[in-house]
Amino acid sequence: MPKIKAEKKSRIHNEVAKQGIHFNKDFGQHILKNPLIITSMLDKAGLRPTDIALEIGPGTGNMTIKMLDRVKKVIACEIDTRLVAELQKRVQGTPYQAKLQILVGDVLKTELPFFDICVANIPYQISSPLVFKLLLHRPFFRCAVLMFQQEFAQRLVAKPGDKLYCRLSINTQLLARVDMLMKVGKNNFRPPPKVESSVVRIEPRNPPPPINFVEWDGLTRIAFVRKNKTLSAAFKHNTTMAVLEKNYRVHCSLHNKEIPDEFDIKQKVQDVLTAAEADQMRARTMDVDDFMKLLHAFNSEGIHFA
C-alpha cells in the first residue's frame, strides 16, 4: 500500500493545538490557511494605508496580521474567547498591538463602530443576517470582500430567471452592487468544511434607493414564497390578506379616510396588481425596477407591508 503523507500543519495551528484548542463547528470555525487566497482577498479589497478595516471571525489571525500591514487599524470581532487570547498573544509586543482593536462577542448583537472596509471569512451560519446588518450600517463603508458558502454566494449574485434567484438576491441587489470574485476549495481550510466556498465583493449603493426597506422586504417576502406562481396567486393567501387589511385600516385611520362597508381587501389588491400590469408577473423573473414600481403602486393606494 502507498504510504499516506502526513498532513502539513502550520506553525500557528500547531501552537493552537498544543494549547488544547479545538475549532468549534458551532461557531463555523473553519480557519482559512492558504496565504495566497488571503493575499488575493486583501488585494481585491483595495486596502488603503488610511483605512479602518473590519474583520469578522479572525480566528487565529492569519488574515488579521496581513491586514495590519496594509491599513491604519483593524477592528476584529470574535465570539470565542480562546481565539481572542491567541490573537492577543500573537500581536503582543509588536507594532501591530496598537493597531488592533478586538470586539469580543456575537457580531450580530454588537454595535459596530465606523469602518471603511470589511474583509472576512464569514462563519457561514450567520451569512444572511450579517449581510443585511452590514448593508444597513451607517455611516456607509466603501466595500466588503467576504467569503461565503458557494451556493449562498451564487444566490447573492443571481439574476432574474436564474435557478437560484430568490429574495436574498433582490434584497441584496437593491442595496448594493455584488460581484463574484473567486471560488475557494474546501481543502484551503482547517478543518475542511463540507461545502465549497466563494468570495464576493459587496459595494453599498450610496446614496441608497429612496425606499423603506422594511416595506420592500415585506413585499418581496410575499412574492417569493412561491416565486414560480403569478403575483395574483401569491397574494391570495388568507394570512397575507389579513395583514394587508389590518395595515390598510391603520393607514386610513391615520389619514382620516373612510372605509366603505362593502370593502374587500382581496379585490383592492387585485385591482392594484391589474392596474400595474403585474397580476401575471412571477417573482422569479422580476428585477429591482419591477418591484419598486409595484411597491409604489400599492403604497399609492394605501396598502403597506410594514
From TrEMBL:
Name of the protein this chain belongs to: rRNA adenine N(6)-methyltransferase
Coiled coil stretches, renumbered: none
Class of this enzyme: transferase
Chain sites annotated for binding S-adenosyl-L-methionine: H30, L32, G57, E78, D106, N121
Family annotation (PROSITE patterns): RRNA_A_DIMETH (PS01131), SAM_RNA_A_N6_MT (PS51689)
Family per similarity comment: Belongs to the class I-like SAM-binding methyltransferase superfamily. rRNA adenine N(6)-methyltransferase family.
Gene3D superfamilies linked to this entry: 1.10.8.480, Vaccinia Virus protein VP39
Domain of life: Eukaryota
Keyword Membrane attributed: no
Gene Ontology terms: cellular component: nucleolus
Residue ranges annotated for the Ribosomal RNA adenine methylase transferase N-terminal domain, each copy included: 37-206
Enzyme Commission number, as recorded: 2.1.1.-
InterPro entries on file: KsgA/Erm, rRNA_Ade_Mease_Trfase_CS, rRNA_Ade_methylase_Trfase_N, rRNA_adenine_dimethylase, SAM-dependent_MTases_sf
Subunit structure: Part of the small subunit (SSU) processome, composed of more than 70 proteins and the RNA chaperone small nucleolar RNA (snoRNA) U3.
Organism (species): Euphydryas editha (Edith's checkerspot)
Keywords: Methyltransferase, RNA-binding, rRNA processing, S-adenosyl-L-methionine, Transferase
PANTHER family, per the entry: DIMETHYLADENOSINE TRANSFERASE, DIMETHYLADENOSINE TRANSFERASE-RELATED
